[in-house]
């Protein structure tokens, strides 16, 4: 029932606005030297009608289960919607030709009025007579019409501001939704490019080496800037490297060290290949995953659909390393 009342109030104001603008338009079109206030009334009430049509759309788009808080405020007993309705009713009555012509003058002026009307009727057409009487009546009503128009304008401003806030809220929600969609699309593109770059995945070998690690092995290291290991096959170089990689990965995963990142690759004889190209494909792919960003050069290489050469990959790695997320100062 409350929703029916909301719709009825809004539609009532729209209908009143239409009637008032129709009366003003008729005056402007047919009456010569019409009161200039009528043009102001026409313009303001016509714009009010547009505002209420927007309000009607808002009401229709509101969920059936929950009324919009703005609508509840606007449609309260002393709210701007009811205020507009009351002011428009009075304004319509004030400028309506039928209402003004039916109003009777005081008895003592009847004879004088009759004489004026008889004179005008004898010398002018009926339309001209009505114009003359409207011109005589209007100064007495202009002040009241101005007051009512100001009241309508005040209520219209309140409603427009409320609608503006509601529209801004909707736009904000739409932007958030679009941002989420764009983010999902961007992430999908990033992962697709990274997957294309990462031709040889060394994580299987890494996991295998980690499983062979014995606790306590390699703890003698003091985080050197560079570590060179040499030894015969099977001496444990790869296992020791896996320990270092795992230690660095654990360090970088700590939220305290979120500004740090790492990437690794195993040049393994079992791959039976020149490891330079796979290395230069894997490292940029891993770093792009960390930063969640793919530089333009990497995108162009991917979009070409051709196997990248050594020079392309070196330039791509340099481009990836320029990412702000990787610009971390290294202690001397």
TrEMBL record:
Keywords: Repeat. Residues 218-303 form the Nephrocystin 3-like N-terminal domain. InterPro entries: NPHP3-like_N, P-loop_NTPase. Gene3D superfamilies: P-loop containing nucleotide triphosphate hydrolases (3.40.50.300). The keyword Ribonucleoprotein does not apply. This is Nephrocystin 3-like N-terminal domain-containing protein.
């Amino acid at each position: 029932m409350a929703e029916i009342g909301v719709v009825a109030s809004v539609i009532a104001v729209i209908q009143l606005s239409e009637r008032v603008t129709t009366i003003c338009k008729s005056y402007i079109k047919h009456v010569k030297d019409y009161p200039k206030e009528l043009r102001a009334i026409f313009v303001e009430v016509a714009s009010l009608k547009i505002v209420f049509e927007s309000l009607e759309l808002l009401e229709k788009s509101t969920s059936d289960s929950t009324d919009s808080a703005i609508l509840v405020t606007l449609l309260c007993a002393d709210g701007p919607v009811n205020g507009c309705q009351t002011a428009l009713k009075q304004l319509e009555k004030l400028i309506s030709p039928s209402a003004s012509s039916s109003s009777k003058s005081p008895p003592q002026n009847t004879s004088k009025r009759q004489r004026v009307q008889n004179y005008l009727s004898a010398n002018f057409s009926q339309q001209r007579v009505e114009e003359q009487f409207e011109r005589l009546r209007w100064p007495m009503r202009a002040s009241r019409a101005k007051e009512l128009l100001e009241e309508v304008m005040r209520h219209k401003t309140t409603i427009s501001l409320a609608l503006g806030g509601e529209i801004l809220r909707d736009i904000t929600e739409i932007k958030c939704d679009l941002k989420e969609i764009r983010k999902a699309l961007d992430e999908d593109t990033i992962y697709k490019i990274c997957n294309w770059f990462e031709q040889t995945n060394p994580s299987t070998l890494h996991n295998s080496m980690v499983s062979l690690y014995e606790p306590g092995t390699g703890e003698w290291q003091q985080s050197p800037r560079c570590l060179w290991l040499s030894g015969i096959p099977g001496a444990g170089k790869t296992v020791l490297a896996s320990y270092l990689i795992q230690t660095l990965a654990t360090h970088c995963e700590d939220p305290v060290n979120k500004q740090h990142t790492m990437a690794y690759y195993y040049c393994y004889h079992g791959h039976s290949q020149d490891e330079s190209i796979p290395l230069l494909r894997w490292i940029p792919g891993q770093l792009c995953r960390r930063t969640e960003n793919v530089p333009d050069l990497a995108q162009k290489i991917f979009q070409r659909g051709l196997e990248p050469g050594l020079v392309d990959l070196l330039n791509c790695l340099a481009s990836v390393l320029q990412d702000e997320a990787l610009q971390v100062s290294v202690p001397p």
